[in-house]
Design a protein that fits this description.
There is one protein chain. This protein is of the alpha/beta class. 43% of the residues lie in helices and 21% in strands. The protein is elongated.
């Protein structure tokens, strides 16, 4: 197996969909591994160590949301693209909240899915290259370790999703710069997600609950009415 070729885990209970995705993934020079249920997916995750997961939400045993939560609880930062027939805004926001990196609704274009896979993997590679700094604020009240991707609040490790981390580190690198919602969507999702402004608001809300002493009176993630958000030291 070529170590330079990325490994993609495809999880869906519909065989025809798996076959189509697998064909497009392999034709794009990726290794493809497939699972038709949640337990098989978790087993393959540990055995294969995939570089990205395409995860259907509606599985016969464990739903995709629970698998996503499980992986994030285990501190895995593997990129996850959720694939589902659910098209409601709340469903999409919930998927992003629990740690998904992107969200594609059925029916979908296999070519678009592969493009999303490539874009997300590029973003992960850029994040890894740029990880070289440690940021500390307010006498070590908040520490962002951009080498290990760890965030600590008052000495306690904070578990952030990849999107939450991307937003936080971008803002922390540029204190007092005001970011529009569109800029934060681009930062968190590389501009490849046809999302909603509310997705950003949801990430900001989660960040405040995780890193602020009092989320109702935020010290770090501050709202600039009518414009967006900024990081206040």
């Amino acid at each position: 197996m070529n170590k330079d070729r990325k490994k993609i885990l495809i999880v869906d209970d519909e065989i025809k969909i798996i076959e189509v995705i697998k064909s497009y993934i392999e034709n794009s020079n990726f290794y493809a591994f497939t699972a038709t249920n949640g337990n098989e997916a978790i087993s393959l995750f540990y055995n294969v160590n995939p570089d990205l997961i395409i995860l259907d939400l509606m599985l016969p045993d464990i739903n995709g949301e629970e698998i996503c939560k499980f992986l994030r609880i285990k501190k895995s930062k593997v990129p996850i693209i959720m694939l589902t027939a659910k098209i409601g805004e709340e469903d999409i926001l919930n998927g992003l909240d629990i740690g998904a990196d992107d969200y594609i609704t059925k029916p979908f274009s296999p070519r678009q899915l592969v493009a999303r896979v490539k874009a997300l993997l590029r973003r992960v590679e850029v994040d890894e290259v740029q990880s070289s700094d440690i940021y500390s604020f307010n006498q070590n009240d908040l520490i962002i370790d951009n080498v290990s991707y760890e965030v600590r609040k008052a000495g306690t490790l904070v578990n952030l999703t990849r999107n939450e981390y991307n937003i936080l580190i971008a803002m922390a690198k540029h204190p007092s710069k005001v970011f529009t919602r569109e800029e934060l969507i681009s930062i968190a999702l590389s501009g490849d997600f046809e999302g909603y402004d509310r997705a950003v608001d949801s990430h900001i809300k989660n960040l405040r609950h995780k890193i602020e002493s009092d989320p109702r009176v935020p010290k770090y993630i501050q709202t600039i009415r009518g414009v967006g958000y900024k990081f206040g030291e």
